[in-house]
Amino acid sequence: MNGISAHWLSPVQAPLASRFYAAEGQKERARRDERIAVLRDADGTIIAAARLSPRGDAWLLRALQVARHCQGQGLARQLMQFVLSQPQPLWCFSLPHLQPFYRSLGFVVPDAAGVPAAIADPFAAYCRTQPLVILYAPGAD
């Protein structure tokens, strides 16, 4: 796809991401305290989004989504490369089958002792409902 560009939404633009998620059948609600990265097509339509929620001195990647009609074109990777270009510690809770994707971007499975409570506590809560792998992007800080 030509004409695709990556952007950070401003806090007042957060509802645009929420509308994108809803159009894709997701219940995600973007919040104004989050950093929200998007890919837009040549017409300015959001075709991918990722939410970064503040967690202490780090960020937690949430809700990486690519529009159904655009999947399979490397857009998740393109958006994540944009996100990872920013200097910040970044964590994510990955479903096991997505771990190779995140590892290919430089995420690693951290030593449990090195996981801050602001990340470990919500991770434990999520793991009660589904199996997840915690990952960290060490090159981002």
TrEMBL record:
This is GCN5-related N-acetyltransferase. Residues 1-133 form the N-acetyltransferase domain. Pfam families: Acetyltransf_7 (PF13508). One of its GO terms (molecular function) is acyltransferase activity, transferring groups other than amino-acyl groups. PROSITE patterns: GNAT. Transmembrane segments: none annotated. Keywords: Transferase. The keyword Transferase applies. InterPro entries: Acyl_CoA_acyltransferase (IPR016181), GNAT_dom (IPR000182).
